[in-house]
Amino acid sequence: ELFTAISDVEPLLETHKKIIDDLEDYIKKEEDRLQALKRHLVIYRREHEQAMEDIPNYLGNPINAFTLIKRLTIDLDDIEKSIEIGTEYIKNITIINNHANVKYPTLEDLTGAAQALTRLQQTYKLEVKDLSEGRLNGVVYSTPMSAGDCYELGKALYNEKDYENALDWMNEALYKYVDEDQPYPFSEADILEYISFSHYLLGDLKSAIEWTKNLLLIEPKHSRAAGNLPHYQKALQEKELKAKKRRKGDTGEPDIEYEPQAKESRSNSYSAERQSYEALCRGEKELPPEITKTLTCRYMTENHPFLKLAPVKMEYLYRNPDIIVFNDVLSEYEIDYIKRLAQPRFRRATVHDPATGELVPAHYRISKSAWLKDEESAIVARVSRRVAHITGLSMTTAEELQVVNYGIGGHYDPHFDFARKEENAFEKFNGNRIATVLFYMSDVAQGGATVFTELGLSVFPRRGSAVFWLNLHPSGEGDLATRHAACPVLRGSKWVCNKWIHQGGQELIRPCNLEYQKESIIRPIPQPIEKFFR
Ligand SMILES: O=C(O)CCC(=O)C(=O)O
Ligand SMILES: [Fe+2]
């Protein structure tokens, strides 16, 4: 027993002190924990209220979509961890247990949203600073991103080996972290470590050394940094030695050096098509006057007797090859109906992975789509009939109606709609895709144009209109000038549906001929429609 001698009790005071310290420490941690949870609650509440004010507008903003996914993945994990270290009582109300029936995004979703943001950044030349402040093209659309948002975004990109973009976002995270004074599950040193390691992986040893030194200044005992520094320094020395030797011409090695990829060299290495695509997406290219002066518009009454009663507004967007837009060819009712029918069947666009033979999500095409049959709905059949009327082509071998919705940063890289000879596709359709009719079922607030990379033409979506072009020359050969793409959606949601018309059934309507040059799509009309109605 200790109490019998005061001297023996004395050590108890130490224990006592320890308990005070421990308890203080524990309470401080609990308070921090509750503080962090309260902070999450405030953000969730604030964002939810904003979202409910105007849901499509809120979710149509890529930054809001990203931060929503982040809140439901990374932040939710954080909250859960916080709660787990709490009492049994709190454990019993764990969020996930109680809401098993609601949807949660996955970490893949977070990565996807992060990649979408960098795609938008690159295509539309957006600055990290603007995005992180919630600005798109000069207008503020969302609450600024926090240091934590930027950090998680940087981390997702880093994990996808996109070190350039990871660096930009980590730098932004650092900038915000210093000002924010928030309890985060990561430290300033963690950000600095990502920055230095990204520099290293990009081959920029000098910057890697610089940033590792910064890290060691704020956390001198950081063991990985302390280990990496001499490694980087040695690598740099060797590299400089090699460079010196090479200048003298006595390395005996081939003259190749791994240089850090500068930003400029990155953008210069883009293919001409990529550059054309991005400029067109930004709406920066204008058609030359030789083309624009040939572009006319009129009411179309030919191709089918029905059009005499209901003429269609048609406008040339390009001549030879002819790209035509038909305005007001889908009604609001039809649009809503088609969207509602398609949505429950949506699947992510997939491709066959040649290595595994499995269907994997296609990176060149980020969207969800579904197919609708004429037989299942009078509305779908009506749309097919309308396509027949306005194009004058037979629908006997056309594909079903494809309905597509593009998500955050959704896009479709440059492609042809026709199958190349070697692809051997479309046998069951009696021939190649002779024509495309692409209906727009939404306006798009920013981005989302359909662009023709060979022609230098951008078409910005207009709800209810349809673009039409022939993919094949009269000889049946694919027309390379029809190469086109769907630009990433910057703000808003893009809905389209399309009808692909095949060669089979057109033998008498558009007999093929061996001339390579394509003729005009629409036959000349005898009289303008206005005369009928006057
Ligand atoms: O959505 C667009 O603007 C173009 C879509 C497209 O080219 C396609 O689905 O083949
Ligand atoms: Fe296409």
Automatic annotation (TrEMBL):
<keyword id="KW-0175">Coiled coil</keyword>
<comment type="function">
    <text>Catalyzes the post-translational formation of 4-hydroxyproline in -Xaa-Pro-Gly- sequences in collagens and other proteins.</text>
</comment>
<feature type="domain" description="Fe2OG dioxygenase">
    <location>
        <begin position="397"/>
        <end position="503"/>
    </location>
</feature>
<dbReference type="GO" id="GO:0004656">
    <property type="term" value="F:procollagen-proline 4-dioxygenase activity"/>
</dbReference>
<keyword id="KW-0847">Vitamin C</keyword>
<keyword id="KW-0560">Oxidoreductase</keyword>
<keyword id="KW-0408">Iron</keyword>
<dbReference type="InterPro" id="IPR013547">
    <property type="entry name" value="P4H_N"/>
</dbReference>
<dbReference type="InterPro" id="IPR005123">
    <property type="entry name" value="Oxoglu/Fe-dep_dioxygenase_dom"/>
</dbReference>
<feature type="region of interest" description="Disordered">
    <location>
        <begin position="241"/>
        <end position="271"/>
    </location>
</feature>
<dbReference type="GO" id="GO:0005788">
    <property type="term" value="C:endoplasmic reticulum lumen"/>
</dbReference>
<dbReference type="InterPro" id="IPR044862">
    <property type="entry name" value="Pro_4_hyd_alph_FE2OG_OXY"/>
</dbReference>
<dbReference type="InterPro" id="IPR006620">
    <property type="entry name" value="Pro_4_hyd_alph"/>
</dbReference>
<dbReference type="InterPro" id="IPR059068">
    <property type="entry name" value="TPR_P4H"/>
</dbReference>
<dbReference type="GO" id="GO:0005506">
    <property type="term" value="F:iron ion binding"/>
</dbReference>
<dbReference type="Pfam" id="PF08336">
    <property type="entry name" value="P4Ha_N"/>
</dbReference>
<keyword id="KW-0223">Dioxygenase</keyword>
<dbReference type="GO" id="GO:0031418">
    <property type="term" value="F:L-ascorbic acid binding"/>
</dbReference>
<dbReference type="Pfam" id="PF23558">
    <property type="entry name" value="TPR_P4H"/>
</dbReference>
<protein>
    <recommendedName>
        <fullName>procollagen-proline 4-dioxygenase</fullName>
        <ecNumber>1.14.11.2</ecNumber>
    </recommendedName>
</protein>
<keyword id="KW-0479">Metal-binding</keyword>
<comment type="similarity">
    <text>Belongs to the P4HA family.</text>
</comment>
<keyword id="KW-0256">Endoplasmic reticulum</keyword>
<keyword id="KW-0732">Signal</keyword>
<dbReference type="Pfam" id="PF13640">
    <property type="entry name" value="2OG-FeII_Oxy_3"/>
</dbReference>
<dbReference type="InterPro" id="IPR045054">
    <property type="entry name" value="P4HA-like"/>
</dbReference>
<keyword id="KW-0325">Glycoprotein</keyword>
<feature type="coiled-coil region">
    <location>
        <begin position="13"/>
        <end position="54"/>
    </location>
</feature>
<dbReference type="InterPro" id="IPR011990">
    <property type="entry name" value="TPR-like_helical_dom_sf"/>
</dbReference>
